[in-house]
Amino acid sequence: MTTTASESGEAETVRLVDYVARELARSGVTHMFGVGGANIEDLYDAVHRGGAVRGIVAKHEFSAVTMADGYARTTRRLGVVAATSGGGAMNLVPGLAEAYASRVPVLALVGQPPTGQEGHGAFQDSSGKAGSFDAREVFAPVSRFCARVDDADSLTELLPRAVAAAQADPRGPAVLLLPKDVQQAWIQVPARGVAVSPAGRATASAARLDTAAVSAVSDALRGAGRVLVIAGEDVAADDARGDLAELAQRLGAWVAVTPDAKDVFDNRDPRFAGVAGVMGHANVEDCLRRADVCLLVGTRLPLLARGGLDRALADTDVVCLGPEPPFVAGTTLGGNLRDALRAVTARLPSHPRPCPPHAGPLPTLMPGPHIRARERTVPHPQAVAAVEAALPQDAHVFVDAGNAGASAVHLLPAPRHGRFVVAVGMGGMGYTFGAGIGAALATGRRTYVLAGDGSFFMHGMEVHTAVEYDAPVTFVIFNNNAHAMCALREELLQGGIRSDDLFARTDLAAGVAAAFPSLEATGAVDAAQLRTALLRSNAGRGPAFVAVACDPREIPPFLPFQSFTEATESKEGSDERGVVHVG
């Protein structure tokens, strides 16, 4: 007879996959994203039978990971993805690499062939036996924790370790490899499982802050006349927006944000200086040159966030709050970000200081296309202005890579009560389609996906997933019929555009409308039509799709292009020091 916790009060015997499904629910997980297959079907069965976690089937495993990623970024819970062995497992790698680089807590549950077949020619064998490759060696570089569950009873130890590793600083993916026979095994488990907080964070106490570092940072800030804060994505991940705003008020500081953190500070606040780095605003550099201290909060200031600022940073005292050391020299206070913010703020004068005058995040004026488009197109600034006019202030925004993404980061204010997510860890095209769906399903809020046609052709068929699950996602596709950023690099840096990055014209709205008759799909030929279509999508329940025609030769507000055109006008070559290079 099966022993249950309700009968004994101490232990119960359950299928391993039922235990996993139950513990995910107890950890605050509400959705599991993935693609099915023979070696993961038992877990999907357990999730379906359990009912507490909703299984979402994606079209591709990369997008399933980004769904879990978007879920985690908008809920601050653990994102969970499940996939089968072989090609399904390998398709997880680029998505996990983004989560690893961007410090997003994701748990990947990956099916494997039965243990008895390993090393004996099993289909999709990745055990490392008899000449097969070892999946652990594939996933280890893109995970904080990776283990193969060869012994079913070991899962009661490995699952909480994986969850804790994903949620500890630095956050990131954890991977459990689950052979099919292990998933089906019956195990005896304690009545209590993974200990996590309601928000999904591990209950382990944060490390104590270094008192000397707290004093050094506080003293530097108290003695500064002018302070520029550059805030990063960790502010959102640690739910520290209020703490950041309080610190900025007490310092009378200007506040800039990194490209992936537009939502961590009110973009309409008079203190807001703009976006730092290669997609940013000139005002940030001006404020940095005028500042006595530059305070980094929740960012290591990678190249995308400091491009064009290195010389000014070298002439300014830098202090940093965050769990990881910055990429620039300065005084650092490590540890939990919220604790650090509160400790430093408590040592500052309690009355707010006025913010010195500054220009604010004025848009950068970029040169227009060299050749007029043959067909009617909408310039990026007009298209982004239409999005801004329609965007609900509680919406989430996910911005994809490319020229359209650079324009949105530069021009579109973040919604006051929603996330503004840019995946700059790996910068993979097509990230937003899955991530936006994961966020929308997790929160129920209208979510905007802003992407180019190149990104759509990679992973845009996740629109089908949005239709299937009636997810409130508005897909806005800036269609320039090109890999336009590549084409501009060829024109500006390599002496001419190659035809392989320019595409034949495609009517995306008509194609999507034909494929999904229930989907509201619109082709916008001007900014007014775009705004009208977006407002109509806001009034609906489920997904909507809007494609707007753009010019592939339009130069976005992207510093490498700007610095090249300025250098060319002053007769400098592309190898001169004034040109900023970003991959």
Descriptors:
single chain; 583 residues; alpha/beta; 6-stranded parallel sheet; 25 helices; 38% helix; disordered N terminus
Q: Segments where pLDDT lies below 50 for 5+ residues?
A: 1-8, 194-200, 202-206, 572-577
Average pLDDT works out at: 92
State the end-to-end distance.
Answer: 62 Å
How many helical elements?
Answer: 25
Main sheet: strand order: 3-2-4-5-7-6
Main sheet summary: 6 strands, parallel
Give the beta-strand count: 20
Task: Give the percentage of residues in beta strands.
Answer: 15-25%
Structural class: alpha/beta
Helix content: 25-40%
Instruction: Determine the oligomeric state from the structure.
Output: single chain
Q: Over all CA atoms, what is the radius of gyration?
A: 25 Å
Shape: globular
Describe, in plain words, how this protein is organized in 3D:
With 583 residues, the protein is of the alpha/beta class. It is 38% helix and 17% strand. The strands form four sheets. Strands 3-2-4-5-7-6 form a six-stranded parallel sheet, with helices on both faces. A six-stranded parallel sheet has the order 11-10-9-12-13-14, with helices on both faces. Strands 16-15-17-18-20-19 form a six-stranded parallel sheet, sandwiched between helices. Helix 17 (380-390) packs across helix 18. The radius of gyration is 25 Å and the shape is globular.
